[in-house]
Amino acid sequence: MLKDHADLIASELSEGTGASVALSIVASGIRSGLDIWFQDLEKRQGPIVELRPHGLKAHRVQLRFGNFSRQILKQISEAPAEDIQLARSLVTSIRVEANVEIPGQSLECWTVDDGRFTIAATLKHETTADGGDAIVATCREVIVPLMAAMAELIGYDEIVPEDTSGELEGALSLALVRKRERNPRNRLLCLRVHGYKCFCCGIKPQLKYGPAGKVLEVHHLQPVSQLHEEKHYDPKTDLVPLCPNCHRAVHTRRPTPYSIEELMSMMDTNVH
């Protein structure tokens, strides 16, 4: 039953979205469902995700807005273009098999225009939908990107970088890079697009270390020295996952880090 996995669901969603979530059980005949929302908002004041069993092997997920979401909707309408782009990219990263539906809008260019906005998806599993593996899959493949998109539009968890003045040239640009690298939604999309392996050496830490393998770091490809002019930012193409060793290695050259190609060339040259 979904209610038996409430703690697991909350943990998966908080890690993926960078914001704390709240859950409540909703009775639905013999099998219960869950309503999920951001913890610092009252349930009716923002986006709500309904998670329901759909037959024996599927989950139905629907995102809608509560009846008193006017302030949040206004906040979303004022979201910067980069945040809107990231939110759309997160939604398009949902597995094709989930059959995402946004009534009246396209998957690639949707807008939260009013409180009637909804996104729905149905994900079918090979085993029963009540199992832990199926629930985790639905969280990671559907609910996390949906709620992460809303978190980005609302503006959750803005990261204040540490003072880097005097450490490197282009400190202001470096701060911007670090903010992007540390944004949990940027990290989420980067890993969903490129896979859970190092873009340089190819290691898959979670396969090697199991639960202790969540160590991949996000690297910004654009050198700091080239970020003084405004640049259209796309986390799908501007970020790559690196293992801690490769990430540390590319930054051993300052102020401009080694490129991925340069580091890979060094690795090939020094293989014994």
Automatic annotation (TrEMBL):
<feature type="domain" description="HNH">
    <location>
        <begin position="198"/>
        <end position="253"/>
    </location>
</feature>
<dbReference type="Pfam" id="PF01844">
    <property type="entry name" value="HNH"/>
</dbReference>
<dbReference type="InterPro" id="IPR003615">
    <property type="entry name" value="HNH_nuc"/>
</dbReference>
<keyword id="KW-0378">Hydrolase</keyword>
<protein>
    <submittedName>
        <fullName>HNH endonuclease</fullName>
    </submittedName>
</protein>
<keyword id="KW-0255">Endonuclease</keyword>
<dbReference type="GO" id="GO:0008270">
    <property type="term" value="F:zinc ion binding"/>
</dbReference>
<dbReference type="GO" id="GO:0003676">
    <property type="term" value="F:nucleic acid binding"/>
</dbReference>
<dbReference type="GO" id="GO:0004519">
    <property type="term" value="F:endonuclease activity"/>
</dbReference>
<keyword id="KW-0540">Nuclease</keyword>
<dbReference type="InterPro" id="IPR002711">
    <property type="entry name" value="HNH"/>
</dbReference>
